[in-house]
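Lecture notes, unit on protein representations.

Consider one protein chain, 156 amino acids long.
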Amino acid sequence: MNTINLGMAVVLAVLYSVGFYLLLQRSLMRILIGIVVLGHGANLMLQLAGGPPARAPILGTAPPELFADPLPQALALTAIVITFAMTTYLLALGYRSWVLVGHDEVQDDVEDRRIAERERPEGSMADDTAATGTDDEEDPGSAAASAEPAGTGVAQ
């Protein structure tokens, strides 16, 4: 029966917790480092799942009971490729953000802010404008807000 080393389990838990913490940050560079740390955690987990080192799985060299399982090794190679692809993508995304905006911070969506600031009636999921019957501000996403006023000469 295979037992998992407690030290390796703690290292794996630390890698995953640090990776997820960095993944939840606003800076694209911290997100990139979080993806890399999570990739290393996934590789370590796959190698721990593979068990101790054993013989190469080549018939005729040893009995099949002594063979190493090649599946965790293949999955670890796949995880390395996926981590590399995500790293290059996030590097390109961070560089593009740095060129266009001057920083790599992920900004809030304006619509999310508008919805978060809107007050809702207590205990209701309904719109506060529908409950009071007044509309203090125009919805920038509605067709009425984007339509040209009549008489401007612009074809609608």
